[in-house]
Amino acid sequence: MSKKTKKAGLSARFGARYGVRLRRQIAEIEKKVKQKYTCPGCNYKSVKRVSSGIWKCSKCGLVFTGGAYVPVTQMAKERKNVQI
Question: In the predicted model, is pLDDT for residue 46 greater than 80?
Answer without folding.
Answer: yes
